[in-house]
Design brief:
Length: about 300
């Protein structure tokens, strides 16, 4: 009995979360493999671009990262965004909304750099599942789990998103701190980042994990009355994305102008990826336990017990 339970528990621990979430149909791998994603979310208030600011956060206290692809004409996007707003209630999450720019007749937000980040990270997976690299509505949780469309895969969109949020960041780190700061000088806004003390959760025969830092500039709320989905106030608007390099460094960046008000934020994101060996990611090689297998194992427990009695 104990040995059987041990096998069952081990199988459950090894099963990828997607396999337990309706056999992986609630989301797809946002970057074509499970060993890639995004963490960070440290946020600095740009205000009127005159006051220095800094943040230091423990790795284990980082928020969820939710990246949303949307447009001001997209009616379905309103449904998805409201569902995500409900899903993140009571959780620590950073939301970033990417607006359509390329071949776009109406939406005034976003930039080439925001489109390039979305397509570079999620375009291939989006096209494979939805037919286009940039399709609204779409959203990605922690740079790993891509959700497309407005039809729930489970009981509801809120439940789909809640399950995705609960998986959390799966980068191969166990601790450490991340520092992010800005100082305003005559030369401009000087941003500094440092995450070179993160502890890699592997000791021997470790795969190569690459990290790429980004800073995105997000406006809390922008009013646009001509949006044909009638939302008018568009939240978490991503105006620009700047790719950086290295686990620590300093770079002077131009802060984009806000659409209205003084509510621009600079957000540090860190993309990570485990380099594949033999065409498979680490998690791809783990056995996925389906619902049928799980029920079969549970059904076997009383049979084994009765035979022993």
């Amino acid at each position: 009995m104990r040995s059987l339970l041990a096998v069952l528990l081990t199988a459950l621990l090894l099963a990828p979360m997607g396999a337990l979430g309706e056999s992986g149909t609630i989301w797809v791998d946002a970057r074509g493999q499970q060993d890639a994603g995004t963490f960070g979310g440290l946020t600095l208030d740009m205000g009127n671009s005159t006051e220095d600011d800094s943040k230091s956060v423990d790795y284990n206290d980082l928020p969820n990262i939710v990246e949303v692809y949307t447009a001001t004409w997209c009616w379905n996007c309103v449904t998805n965004e409201r569902a995500m707003s409900e899903a993140v209630e009571g959780t620590d999450a950073v939301l970033i909304h990417y607006h359509r720019v390329w071949i776009e007749p109406e939406d005034p937000f976003g930039s080439d750099s925001t489109e390039e980040r979305w397509v570079g990270n999620y375009g291939e997976s989006s096209k494979s599942v939805a037919g286009e690299e940039r399709i609204a509505p779409s959203l990605v949780v922690d740079g790993q789990r891509l959700h497309t469309g407005s039809v729930a895969k489970g009981t509801s969109l809120v439940d789909d998103y809640s399950q995705s949020l609960q998986v959390g960041n799966r980068a191969w780190f166990t601790g450490g701190t991340i520092d992010f700061s800005v100082s305003f000088t005559e030369s401009g806004a000087s941003f500094s980042w440092n995450f070179d003390n993160l502890v890699f959760s592997c000791a021997d025969d470790c795969p190569t994990q690459t990290t790429t830092p980004w800073i995105v500039f997000v406006e809390d709320s922008a009013n646009f009355e001509d949006g044909s989905n009638n939302l008018e106030d568009y939240l978490h608007v991503n105006h620009a994305a700047s790719q950086l390099s290295g686990t620590n460094g300093t770079e002077i960046l131009d802060i984009p102008e806000t659409w209205d008000g003084e509510d621009m934020k600079a957000i540090l994101l860190i993309d990570w990826e485990i380099e594949k060996e033999g065409g498979n990611s680490f998690h791809d090689s783990l056995p996925a336990v389906g619902i049928a297998t799980l029920l079969s194992l549970l059904a076997a427990v009383p049979l084994v017990r009765s035979r022993r009695q």
